[in-house]
Amino acid sequence: MRSRYSAYVLGLTDYVVQTTLPAQRSALDRDSIAAWSASSTWLGLDVEASEVMGGVPEHAFVTFVARWHDGATEHAHRERSAFVQSGGRWYFLDPTVPMKASRNDPCPCGSGSKFKKCCSAYL
């Protein structure tokens, strides 16, 4: 989570995209990510909690507050983000990007499990 926040601060849009679950990347709006990153003055990140859920593949939640200023107002966003580990790397499960998988389809994370038994519960 900290690395993704740092990527927003530094304007590293490619990193933000690369750390999102590969099955969701094509639906990301790279221009919006880059514009928000560039137009914001980033004020800090507070990680409140993290919990690894275990299982195969491993899933985790990170609860955080990100603060930024947009030129007019200071903002704070609190979120509980879900992540999945695949191929030794952690990927963000973006709840704003629909997964093109039904319950009985193979999970897009590549685990080999059905979507309903894997990542669907974390979106």
Structure in words:
It holds the Pfam family YchJ_M-like. InterPro entries: NTF2-like_dom_sf, SEC_C_motif, YchJ-like_M. Residues 1-94 form the YchJ-like middle NTF2-like domain. This is UPF0225 protein. The structure is a single chain. This protein is α+β, with helices and mostly antiparallel strands. It has a single domain (2-96), classed as Roll (Nuclear Transport Factor 2, Chain: A). Helices cover 20% and strands 35% of the residues. It has three helices and four strands; from the N terminus they run H-H-H-E-E-E-E. The chain has helices at 2-10, 13-18, 30-39; strands at 41-54, 59-69, 74-86, 89-93. The chain has a four-stranded antiparallel sheet, with helices on one face. Strand 2 and strand 3 form a beta hairpin. The longest helix has 10 residues, at 30-39.
Could you name the ranges where pLDDT drops below 50 across 5 or more consecutive residues?
none
Reported CATH architecture: Roll
Mean pLDDT: 93
Q: How many distinct helices? A: 3
Q: What is the CATH C level class, in words?
A: Alpha Beta
Integer count of domains:
1
Pfam family, one: SEC-C
Domain YchJ-like middle NTF2-like: 1-94
Organism: Pseudomonas matsuisoli
Protein name: UPF0225 protein
